Amino acid sequence: MLFYSVGAAGLLLSWRFNRSRILLALLSLLLGYAFLETFTGKGRAVDVTTASMVVGGILSINFLVIAFMPERGVLSSAGRLAGLLISAEVAVVLLLIAVPALSSYVGQIRYYGALKAMTWTPLSIVTLSLAGATTLVLLVRTFLTRSAIDGGLLVAMLAALAGLHFIGVSKAEALYFATAALIMQATIIQDSHARVYFDELTSLPGRRALDEQMMRLGRHYVIAMIDIDHFKKFNDRFGHAVGDQALRFVATQLARARGRAKVFRYGGEEFTLLFPGKTMDEALPYIEQIRERVESTPFVIRGIGRPKEKPKTLSEKPKKTRELLTISIGAAERSEAHRTPQEVLKVADKKLYKAKNGGRNKTVH
């Protein structure tokens, strides 16, 4: 009952927070655990090694599918498609439960392939190979994407694998599977935190993170407000998809700011730079360096001019479209007249509008 209680609570949470990938991972764990309980019980023909291979295979395949799924919500087309896959697996398990005689056929799986258990574990080579491949993919994805969900899938997979290893040892598998379900629940909190504090489009910290950072500023700091010049016209000309590319491009350039600068997506086409412990004279060279870098780095637009049909020759490849983007910057530092970060931010915002009204592509401080 421990695992089912934890799993059910996780399903409710993932449904409430509309996290289809976590919900599907929990369904996979529930399915796998139900299979173990059913087919390693008394009077069953399926042995531990075969049962663990089937469950390990289900979890490995499902977790790989979930890892590469886009997060579009529980009722999205991707969520429904993955739900159909798990439903088919559930149907097979229910059929085996309803017709005990079929379990003897499942037991025959042992005789196909290298399924002999090793001396140190009841798991077969097939089980370990599938789980190892899945774990490696999840490890690489976690390192590359820094995604809470990928990391949760990785740790949950390892916990479930440990549960398969300890099948029949004082119900240790229930504890490990419950741990895997708890990890996925914790992932909901981590993922929600990331969505609140980090901008999904640019991967920069967002407005909430900026507010918290400003609470920790000392007596000396500079705040710079940044706006992409003529961004509305750019969006109208090329479309919002290219506009998103432009935002990511500028975010990448800003993330390279030196002088211990902290970069944030403020909203829309606006960004914020914080320079803790710096005076205006110290921060200004770094601010100007960023403005000049954006101005001098061509922005290559992907997808513009691409032909509807595949080109017959290499010479028919679409030409790359290059545009030059510029930014306007307003900067302010803490002073006796402006003591709080909120006041300094307002001054920087006013300076930004002066830069925009004064011809753009400049810094006003």
Run of helices and strands:
HHHHHHHHHEHHEEHEEEHE
Number of domains: 2
Low-confidence stretches: none
Distance between the termini: 64 Å
Query: Which range does the strand content fall in?
Result: 5-15%
Shape: elongated
Assembly classification: single chain
- Helical residue percent band: 55-70%
Annotation field: number of helices = 13
- Radius of gyration over C-alpha positions, nearest whole angstrom: 27 Å
E-strand count? 7
What order do the helices and strands come in, and which of them pair?
Blueprint: H1 2-16, H2 20-39, H3 48-67, H4 77-98, H5 103-107, H6 125-145, H7 148-165, H8 172-197, H9 207-214, E1 221-228, H10 231-238, H11 240-254, E2 262-267, E3 270-276, H12 280-296, E4 299-301, E5 321-323, E6 327-333, H13 341-357, E7 363-364
Parallel strand pairs: 6-7
Antiparallel strand pairs: 1-3, 1-6, 2-3, 4-5
